[in-house]
Structures are given as structure tokens and as C-alpha cells.
Amino acid sequence: MKVASLWQQLKTLRPSEARFLMDDALVLAWNAYARARFLRTMTPEGRALLHRNRQIQGIHRGKRCWIIGNGPSLRDMDLELLRDEHTFAVNRFIHHPDAEIIDPKYYVIVDPNFGAGAWGTDFIEEIERRLPDVWMFTGLGGRDLLNERKLLQQHRRFVVYPNQLFSFGYPWDIDLTRGIPGMDNVTKSALSIAVWMGFSRINLIGIDGNGLLLDQGSHFYGHVPRPQAQRDLEKALVSSALSMRGWRATTDYLAARGVTLVSQNPQSVLTDLPYEPYAL
Questions:
Q1: How far is CA 145 from the centre of its chain?
Q2: pLDDT for res 4
Q3: Where are the domains of the chain?
Q4: What is the pTM for the complete model shown?
Q5: Which of 8, 41, 126, 228 sits between 20 and 30 A of 210, alpha carbons compared?
Q6: How far apart are CA 50 and CA 44, in angstroms?
Q7: SS (H, E, C) the chain
Q8: Which fold has domain 2-263?
Q9: Which positions ≥6 away from 275 have C-beta within 8 Å?
Q10: Per-residue pLDDT of the chain (280 residues; tens, 9 = 90+)
């Protein structure tokens, strides 16, 4: 009887809705695999590094924070308002002219290309020089690169392991001693860190979500070239759609855990997120 009832529900779905359900099921299956793989493949050193994240669990319980993306909308926002707030910066935010004024508390870089050395380290040298008090979060590869180049040795540093994706129905609590959601987007990694730290209100700015739609200026500091080959563009569009759906899923996920997620970016294409004007 239950199977028949489920079948009746599925028959009433529009094709796009059915596709979304299939995408969610595939993402959940991937997440289950990624969690199991963590247990099989993580080295003792890696486990020890992740276990250090217990030190920061709940340290900002009940407070608010801002996660700052690198979207072009940052050019039109007065970021000096955030100078005394808890802020998360990501990737190349150090290129922003107000980076030192804001003096972000936390910095997150988890892209595997960074750990592989493909991004270079010139901007890390800027972070080291201009943000002496920032706490740095990287993946395992990023940690190895910083050690190899002897960078940020005096900064407080943590390692995270973003190997999962947010989706509707994500069943696990965020745990920085294991794998976390954020593999598709560094700002979602920052969000996972913020939840672990106990922030109860997380504000998003500079997360425009429209990089593939722009001919130039996909980031506040310039443009990351869009894919040229059709297959690469197809992959980028699918990834972008799943990422946007993941942002919607985080709203429900966090609300069920007493955390409010708010977009304060009027230029963002993530229009299904709760929105409020940018203000303190």
C-alpha cells in the first residue's frame, strides 16, 4: 500500500520536480559514501588535526557573524560597517581595499587547487603581512602547502575536511572533527565552521551566485574565465544549479537547529534565501 501511495505521488510530479528529487537522492548517497570513506582513508595525522577543532566548538554560541564572498556586489557595499563584527573571509578577499579595515576574524581557503599550488601564494603572503590576527582554515592539502612554504607559521591555523554537499534531507549534524558540507563552495565551508562555533545568526554578503551569467567582473577583483568548451560549460551549469539548490536546503537545515540564515545582498540571484537590507 505504501509503495502504491508513493507511486501516485511521483506520478503527480512535474519532470523538473522529479529531477530535483533524483538529484537530492544522489547527493545523499554521495554524502553517505563520503562519510564512510573518511573512516577508511583518513590518516592518524589527519584525524589528529581534525580533532583539534574541538577547541573551537561552541565558542561563539548565540552570537552573529557575516560570511563575505568575493562577488562583484562587494564594490557597492560599505564593508567598514563590519570592522568590529565576527567576519569570515574567503579565498582572495585580501585583495579588497578594505580588508585591513575590516580585519576579518576568520579566513577560509579549501579549494584543492590551492593545496596543489595552482593558485600560487602571493595573496597568502599578503594575508600574513596585513592580517596578523586572523585565524586560518584550510584543507589538508592547503595545510601541507603552507608548511612547505613556511607561511602563516605564527597564525592560528585549523584544518577542515569539506567532502560533502548540502541537500534537502541532509541528516547529520555538522562536525568539524569529520567531513563537513562545503566541497562545492568555500562559503558553505565557512558556514559549516560558523555553525560549529555556535553562531545563531549567519549573514551572507558578496555571495552573488551569478558568475556564469556575467561577461566580466565575476568577482570584485576581476573575472574568472568562464568555460569555453561545451562539455565544461555543461558541467559548470549543473554544478551551479546544485550549489544554488544547496543554499536553499541550508535554510531549512539551519532553522531546524535554531540558526537563522539571512542574505543581505540585494544583487544575489539566491532570491529564495531570507533577505534583509545590509545593516548592523
A1: 21
A2: 52
A3: 2-263
A4: 0.92
A5: 126
A6: 10
A7: CHHHHHHHHHHCCCHHHHHHHHHHHHHHHHHHHHHHHHHHHCCHHHHHHHHHHHHHCCCCCCCEEEEECCCHHHHHCCHHHHCCCCEEEECCHHHCCCHHHHCCCEEEECCHHHHCCCCCCHHHHHHHHHCCCCEEEECHHHHHHHHHHCCCCCCCEEECEEEECCCCCCCCCCCCCCEEECCCCHHHHHHHHHHHHCCCEEEEECCCCCHHHCCCCCECCECCCCCCCHHHHHHHHHHHHHHHHHHHHHHHHHHCCCCEEEECCCCCCCCCCCECCCCC
A8: sialyltransferase cstii, chain A (3.90.1480)
A9: 262, 263, 264, 266
A10: 344 554 455 556 566 677 778 888 899 999 999 999 998 999 999 999 999 999 999 999 999 999 999 999 998 899 999 999 999 999 999 999 999 999 999 999 999 999 999 999 999 999 999 999 999 999 999 999 999 999 999 999 999 999 999 999 999 999 999 999 999 999 999 999 999 999 999 999 999 887 766 666 678 887 677 778 888 888 888 888 889 999 999 999 999 999 999 999 998 999 999 999 998 7
